[in-house]
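Table S7 (text form). Paired inputs.
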Amino acid sequence: MSNWLVISVILLGLYAALRILLGIFFANIYELKTLKLKKGTAKPAYYHSFSILIPAYNEGKSIRDSVLSALNLDYDNFEVIVINDGSHDDTLNRLRTVQLEYPNLVIADQTNGGKSVALNNALINYAQYELIMVLDADSILSADALTRMNRYFQDRRVLAAAANVRIKEAPHFIEYVQRVEYFVSYYLKNSEIPLNIEYIIGGIGSCFRRDCLLKAGGYDSDTVTEDIDLTMKLLAYYGNTTYKFVYANDVIAYTPAVHTFHELLNQRLRWKYGRFKALIKYRAMIFNLNPKYSLSLSFWKLPKIWLEEFLMFLEPGFICLALFCLVQYGDFSTYISLVLLYGAYASFAVLNAEKLTLKERMIFFLTAPMAFLFLEVISLVDYLSLIRCLLHQDEIFKQESSWEHVER
């Protein structure tokens, strides 16, 4: 029995270590591949036109900053469309004030219908340009976001591109945990592109070809995570062999952190509900031999998501086994290895990060050895979210387009 315990802990540790090492390896491959694209000074062959869509519901406190960050982008050919989804605070009044300063701002005012309905309204009835970029009303874009995003779409096979999202400010522990998580997870996103397994083009700063969105039918309204659902809808419709779903790691967007453990739990529960819904809805892609899907997506990534959720359910048992081995044999090697690996992972993420002040970079390097602890907090949140999903499975199928707000 004791040998089985030891072997179980060793195998789990090896899996975690292999995942990190492969993540670093493939992330660096993609970083090197896009280095010329990011650093190149040559003018692109073509300048696309962009329609930036900002859906908003009761975002009076943040809407001005978000809209101004879009209106003042360092690019020539774009439009900004804000969809006020029946807000009952001062969102619309603040938008009208901004419109006085920037008459080119387009405001679409509609009765409350949910985020997906708002985005479809703008996509079908207002957007005029080739590429659609989506921005949350509490988030902001870096000034060169469109200039850099334009370079990725020089490749006509690129259908969608995710932006690199960072936490705006993190003065407290739970917020800093999210900041570290975003750095590490978005660095890991680099590794998905060489393997062709990208399946989430996140909502903040995400960019799509407008004609492809319209042909696929736009956003569905039966989900609380419209970005996950849309990506899988596009994958199901177009596949990922002829078309490309990429990560624009130098296109930076900033979003606020949630401020308490309870808010974080509610946010991640919503995300998990939405991901389960999308995976079930588009389950036909799993183990699908249709050549429009890469084997790495249909036979590796999508099944692995289910496997990792199962392993997460068993995680408390593995932790107890690891603690038992630690006490029984006094072997700290597994823990030390994981701490070092996660610390190295966080350091790589910061080393390759752009647009960081010297102070921010130094703080990240100094706290990198604690990355394992920070990510364990997120693991606890994910585990609790999983348990709640299992206890309320019927809620997965009752979802409708809705709004998520961060307390400020």
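Next pair, protein 2 of 2.
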Amino acid sequence: MRSRTGGGGVSSDDIPIGRRVASWRVRRSMTQQMLADRLRRSKSWVDKVERGVRALDRYSVIQELAHVLRVDPEVLLGQQSSTPAGAPDGVDGIRAALARYDIPPAPKQTTDELRRQAGYAWLSYQHAHYGQLARVLPGLLDAAQGVRSAEMLVQAYRITSSLLVKLGEADLAWLAADRAMSAASDDPILAASATISVAQALRASNRNRPALTATLRAANRILPALSHSADHEVGGLRGDQIARQPHDQRGEGEDASWRQRPLGEWAVGGTLLVQAALAAAGCGEHRRADALIDRAAGVAASLRGYDDPHRTSFGATAVELARVLVAGQRGDAVEALRRHSTIVRREGWRRLPAQYRGAYLVDVARAYLQVGDLPGAARALVDADSVAPGEVRCRPLARTVIADVARVQPAPAGVARLATVVGLTR
């Protein structure tokens, strides 16, 4: 497959591989030193590769480069289009909006109108309409800056970061999340909700340790009334203790303010615990991950019918899905799949947003692969595509899982079609 710049233009096959490496490095917002560090090589080695002085004649090295740059090796070799079928355009527009430091003129819409626009953007995200969302985000970012509302800026940057994580732009996602943190200023709840996005972006970059640190600190701040035990890891009592403790015993004086906090703020705290658990699992701290999940479960047990103003989708079902993911990360795919088969039969599963279920099913497909159950992995991918096509067709991670399943010949039912849809077959 050849990509041309126009009539008589240069095909991707004619571009030296070093220039492709340099192009993707810049696109991923990396310096030569950053790329060298991730490859555990010298900056001089990267510079020589990009200038064509050092030849890339070993496929294993090309694979390593492709992994760090989050592209297929064939893209660096010029043998495949760099944009998979179904992937949304618009990332360049989002990047340009994030690069604008001049404050645009105040928009005509009111804060309430902008809040409705942000609500529409969140709805697009929750339904995995990523192409549609990518087109509207630059305007939303500009409008949020014009209104100069901390709440709206945090929402706009959080939505942007969430989408960029999905599209494999982890470094740009971290930038958007960091902007959300700055916009939150001294508001503890806005800062806590922004920390959720920071953690997701860091985890997407395989930076689990800083993600764990950030989420635990944020959890300490949002659950201050519960710091009466010796365990200061998440600011106090375990989640199950929170659920059981009478309201009139949850602290005195300033700590008693916890009693008046909306349930939506509890959900932010619970989500931070879930993100901390996933980061701990990514660090190999599996017992700590299980303990954090237990605490999140206690918080979830205290929530009934809140309206989720901070767009966390937190609850008992979300906690149980996190248990599956943690089990998978520690290599216990059998336990993960046992829990999975129970969860998806519950009513709470069907109430989760489409993108949440689709993303989870892609992770479950990976668990099936761990135990060698290719038909199970295929079913999970097909189910994910039926629930949230954008999750399967736009995400580089899903594309990798599809490729792993499709390598088997003949490919399991449904996966061959998905492989064609996302551009893995020609």
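The domain at 12-77 is CATH 1.10.260.40 (434 Repressor (Amino-terminal Domain)).
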